[in-house]
Every structure is written in C-alpha cells, then in structure tokens.
C-alpha cells in the first residue's frame, strides 16, 4: 500500500471518525437528562468536524505543493467554498459515526430518565396541585 495514500486519505478519515465519536461524548455532561443538550452538542461537533476538515484539506493541498495561502489571500470566499466542499465529502465517513454516537447518547439520556422515574425522582419542575371544582 502506498504511504502517501495512508497519510493523505486513511489518517484524516480515521482522525475525523475518531473525533466524530469522542467529541459529542466529551461535550455532553455525563448526568444530563436533556435530549436538547445532546442535539446541540452533536450539531456543534458536526460544525467542528467541518472546520477541521477544511484545515485538513487545505493542509494536504499545501503538502502537494499548491500555494494555499495565496489562494486564501486572493479570494477568501472562493477558497473557503472549495475546501468546504472537499471537507463535506468526508461526511460520508464521519457522519455515520457521529450518528451512532448521537444514538448512544440519546439512549443514555432516556435510560437516566427512566431510572429517575422508577426511583420517583425527576428533574421537572413541581406541578400545581389539582384544584377542587
């Protein structure tokens, strides 16, 4: 196997996939009972992965001998769009990994909520007592 293939394709894919699994776990508090919090952390992770992917793609173009800094200086929006499109193709790899992390976190939240319900404790605000009519 060609070492340039390992460095330019396999290493970034493994790094992004690993980040797609680890980041949502690291960003989400272990005792959260909020699905909203999990969704927000998954979206933040996806944004981080896209930005990191842009950096990786630009770095590999620079390693191939292209003057990436000059491309960014000439037209920032065109260069960002170009590398963002390249970064978005990596979603095929890290997207399913992020989805699995999301499902795992969501299940943990529901398990905690269920355990709280069995214990008789909830994180909901107390409700008003029923009124006599």
Question: What does this protein structure show overall?
Answer:
This protein has five helices and no strands. With 133 residues, the chain is an all-alpha fold. The N and C termini lie far apart (79 Å).
Task: Give the count of helical stretches.
Answer: 5
Classify the secondary structure makeup into a structural class: mainly alpha
Major beta-sheet overview: none
N-to-C order of helices and strands? HHHHH
Main attributes of the structure:
mainly alpha, elongated, 133 residues
Question: What's this model, at a glance?
Answer:
The chain has 133 residues and is mainly α. It has helices at residues 3-27, 35-63, 68-74, 76-89, 91-119.
Topology:
Blueprint lengths: L2 H25 L7 H29 L4 H7 L1 H14 L1 H29 L14
Helix pairs in contact: 1-2, 1-5, 2-4, 2-5, 3-4
């Amino acid at each position: 196997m060609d070492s340039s293939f390992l460095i330019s394709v396999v290493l970034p894919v493994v790094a992004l996939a690993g980040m797609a699994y680890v980041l949502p776990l690291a960003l989400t508090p272990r005792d959260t009972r909020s699905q909203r919090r999990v969704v927000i952390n998954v979206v933040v992770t996806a944004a981080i992965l896209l930005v990191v992917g842009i950096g990786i793609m630009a770095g590999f173009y620079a390693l191939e001998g292209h003057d990436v800094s000059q491309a960014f200086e000439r037209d920032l929006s065109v260069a960002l769009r170009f590398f963002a499109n390249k970064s978005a193709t990596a979603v095929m790899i890290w997207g399913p990994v992020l989805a699995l992390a999301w499902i795992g976190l969501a299940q943990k939240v529901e398990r905690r909520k269920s355990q709280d319900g069995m214990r008789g404790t909830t994180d909901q605000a107390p409700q008003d007592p029923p009124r006599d009519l």
